[in-house]
Amino acid sequence: MSDAEYDPHATLTGERTFWADEVADAVEARGGDDPIVVKGGISPSGVPHLGNMNEVMRGHYVAAVLRERGHEVRQLFTADDRDPLRGLPRKLADLDGEIVDLGDVNAGALGRNLGHPYTDIPDPFGCCDSYGAHFSNLIERSADLLGVDVETISNTVLYEDGELEAVTRHLLANADDAREVLGAYQDKVDETYVPFNPICEHCGKVTETVTAIDADAGTVDYECTDMEAGDQTIDGCGHRGTATVREGKLPWRFEWPAQWQVLGVDFEPFGKDHAEGSWPSGSDIAATLLEIEPPTPMVYEWFTLDGEPFSSSAGNVVLVSDVLELVERDVLRYFFAKDPKRARDFSTERIDLLVDEFDRFERLYYGEVEDASEREVERAERIYPFVVREVPAERPIRLPYTFAAVLGMTEDPELREEIARREGHIPADASEAAVDAALERVERARTWAERTDNQYNYRIERETMPAVDVDEETAAALDELAAFIEEENPDGESLQGEVYETAKRHDIDIGDFFATGYRLFFDEEQGPKLGQFLADLDQAFVVKRLRREG
């Protein structure tokens, strides 16, 4: 097979407005009958984090475009759950999406089962049939939260039900050819290599040592030897036995193309690590040994999380459920609709920037951005319907995210709405349902402020006035500021300036005067931009509090 053949980087050229259209073009050009099969998949090695959802969301958008063109599409997700557990993750997640440390669950269920298939390992949470099943449940729930209907397929079931038996027998019958093809991609392939890993009947671990093949009978003889797993060795038990092809698994380099054949896969996205590793060998194995056309490939760049790589083993993860506590589903779906060829950082610290970007994208679709380029408008008009799935007749009311975080400083829902209306973010004729939907962002922004402990993580002490001792000069300055607000009803900028001027007139340290204000309203030594914040509150409350009257 030539290097240029099945080039996974050739699918996306950037010539189409929406990358999913370009992939759909390539899938159609590949030919084949409906249903078109779109697949993703991962090994259940730890927490199914946001980065893993590339496998679901990239396929989802391509499937949606193909359905728009009239095709019947199956979107599959394979859980590679017959893989052996090679190491203990630092973090796990329960079915509610709460991330916990390994010490908070039955870690022994994992520690005693290194080298065992994921579906043979007890669920450390005790809620599912196995650790592998627990992981698959989390993937399904994450996909559902994102509005994606995906069919999950267990590799273990494929082996046990015999779905992979014919292709496994074929590869064993042609073990010499398999060894030759893989040897062009891996240095460690020697004359003893066999493309099958039995499960030891004695200890239950996956072993890589096959001593004899009977392809006609569909069995292999094996010895349970040690397995190298990163920087550790998982001890084999030394047992010698015989296993059928249903009692083990193909190595990944062969298992992937075997899935393509058995499931009839037409398209599969994958990360750039596979583009330089498993894909070249997999496409060669498919064409040379299995005599099938590999699926249309698409390489996506990885995400980072707050500047660091996603890592289940290191615990640097965030789940879909976590993110949806901070932003609306459509905002997160928009993130996955962006160009897969560009590496991106998902920053929880600056998630406000993503929300602002989505809000502008939405306004572009509704023709409400005056300085937009033709390309921006074209992109929004094409992609927005796929992001939201059902386009509202009128643009939803969106409170600016950081403004919503400011509103989150008060618990009073009526005050939140009053301030939002006063600032012009809620139209006078907005329906009650539209207002309620808009104000839902306040709780998300408040959660963001708390989770990141940023400059919006403050709460107004509205019910009771904090005990604040002020000297005579500071008291006079506060009374003067209260009178200014009562008489002038200033905007935020004017009020911020007046705070400075009042402190100067009374010869009070500026920092001390602001700190007094923060203690009066937040019972804290610091807080948000005070003038702007006080201008947004109801005037009577602000005046009364500055006069220390309650």
From TrEMBL:
Give the species this sequence originates from: Halarchaeum salinum
User: What phylogenetic lineage does the species belong to?
Assistant: Archaea, Methanobacteriati, Methanobacteriota, Stenosarchaea group, Halobacteria
Q: Which top EC class applies here?
A: ligase
Motif 'KMSKS' region covers: 309-313
Localization terms from the record? Cytoplasm
Q: What is its EC number?
A: 6.1.1.6
The record's similarity note reads: Belongs to the class-I aminoacyl-tRNA synthetase family.
Signal peptide limits: none
Which PROSITE patterns does the UniProt entry name for this protein?
A: AA_TRNA_LIGASE_I (PS00178)
Q: What is its main location?
A: cytoplasm
Q: Which UniProt keywords apply?
A: Aminoacyl-tRNA synthetase, ATP-binding, Cytoplasm, Ligase, Nucleotide-binding, Protein biosynthesis
Give GO terms: molecular function aspect only: ATP binding; lysine-tRNA ligase activity; tRNA binding
A GO term from the CC aspect: cytoplasm
| Name of the protein described by the UniProt record | Lysine--tRNA ligase
